Amino acid sequence: MKCLVALAALAVATVSHAQTVWKLATGYRAESFHTRNLQQFAADVERASQGELRIEIHPNNSLFKLAEISQAVQQGRAQAGETIMTNLVGEMPIAGADAVPFVARTYADARRLWDLQRPLIENHLAQRGLKALYAVPWPPQGLFSTEPVKSSADFKGKRMRTYNPATVRIAELLGATPLDVPMVEVNQALSSGRLDSMITSALTGVENQVWGQIHFYYSVNAWFPKNIVLVNQKAYDALPVAVRQQVAQAAVEAERRGWTMSESTAQESVAELQRKGIKVDRPTAELDTELKRLGERFSREWVHSVGNEANSIFIPYYFQR
């Protein structure tokens, strides 16, 4: 009997010792569709590996702040993490491709752009001891306005909310006055008459309840910013081959599921704006043409600033449809 108890204890200790635990840091709320997708990814991995790998999700900047996550994973302070792609631009400018305005105007466009961008991202990450698991876009960036917009002429003399160099450049090219306003202060700026328009996603508009002063939303689909899930390459390589394959397969499924969740979230958010009294419309043919020309201009400027590597994205993107 004592022998059986000892063997059982040894078996439990062996299973406990065999289990690997990863910490995965993200800067987004637990309620975010991105985080819910991460939770499903972790559950899929644990189930497929029969508990051999467990991934703990740490949302809402609780482990590391969003801007620190990629470096923390690179240094091994967390085995994995999720960050927005533009946070990688300082080290790898090619990561900014998905944030070039008015280039990807549909989810299909965004998917094709990611397919072209991914090999370059993976190469840069590999040089830093990182591996990309998957990437999922946020809903597209739309145009909110207090007044109707039919063409770029309607922006003249108006104040547009900006929050990074790209949005400042958009405002300038449209003839609007850039106004740096944090999202938490947008409603106050709107109610005081300091702000006339802004480019952000319908989801952000819903989360910040911008109805009241904002009366119009145009689905201009300015860009599709993506979140990317990274893993420390040494941590990944330390897994048994079978578990690595299970992680890779779960990542493929998470990317597919995440893109579907993003599109559903976008549609639900636009519907909620309509329910709250905001008039939702597509851009006029004139405005759409003007925005397309802006996209071509932005992409040329971006390629010039990034260098030859950028051509391997935008040359096939524009000419090999």
> What is the CATH C level class of the largest domain, in words?
Alpha Beta
Total tally of structural domains: 2
Q: How many distinct helices?
A: 11
The CATH H-level homologous superfamily of the largest domain: Bacterial extracellular solute-binding protein, family 7
- In CATH terms, what is the architecture of the largest domain? 3-Layer(aba) Sandwich
Proportion of β residues? 15-25%
Can you tell me the overall shape? globular
Using only C-alpha atoms, the radius of gyration works out to 22 Å
Structure class: alpha/beta
How many β-strand stretches?
11
Low-confidence stretches: 10-17
Mean pLDDT: 92
Question: Widest sheet: strand order?
Answer: 7-6-8-5-9-11
Distance between the termini: 71 Å
Listing every helix as H and every strand as E from the N terminus to the C terminus, the arrangement reads HEHEHEHEEEHEHEHEEHHEHH
Major sheet description: 6 strands, mixed
User: Share of helix among residues?
Assistant: 40-55%
CATH-derived topology of the largest domain:
D-Maltodextrin-Binding Protein, domain 2
